[in-house]
Amino acid sequence: MLRVRCKVCGKELSNENGKSQCCGCSNITSIINDRITAKDLSKVVILSNTNNTKANKSVLSDSDIAWHESRRHRKIRKLDFEVR
């Protein structure tokens, strides 16, 4: 969850419900998903920034990754065909 406060109007914005929010003052501080935008970002204070998404999501287990790594180093047999 991301929470910010606009220093111009003092309104707190958060992205917990997934909708974009805007403060409505002259600085136009807004939160869209995980981005913070404003005319002057020095007038914006980040109150909390807890990101719940994992950076290293892996579908494969450790044993699957080891199997793929061992398979990557296999030798490829080339077939020779007789051309007539």
Spell out the key features of this protein.
single chain; 84 residues; alpha+beta; 3-stranded antiparallel β-sheet; 6 strands; 26% strand
Give the SSE map.
Blueprint: E1 2-6, E2 12-14, E3 21-22, E4 30-32, E5 35-37, E6 44-49, H1 62-72
Antiparallel strand pairs: 1-2, 1-6, 3-4, 4-5
Description:
There is one protein chain. With 84 residues, this protein is α+β, with helices and mostly antiparallel strands. Helix content is 13%, strand content 26%. It has 1 helix and 6 strands; from the N terminus they run E-E-E-E-E-E-H. Strand 1 and strand 2 form a beta hairpin. The model has no long low-confidence stretch (mean pLDDT 84).
**Overall SS class:** alpha+beta
Q: Give the SSE order as H and E letters.
A: EEEEEEH
Helix content: 10-25%
Major beta sheet, strand line-up: 2-1-6
Radius of gyration: 26 Å
Residue ranges: pLDDT <50 for 5 or more in a row?
Answer: none
Distance between the terminal alpha carbons, to the nearest Å?
70 Å
Major beta sheet, specifics? 3 strands, antiparallel
Number of strands: 6
In brief:
With 84 residues, the protein is α+β, with helices and mostly antiparallel strands. It is 13% helix and 26% strand. It has 1 helix and 6 strands.
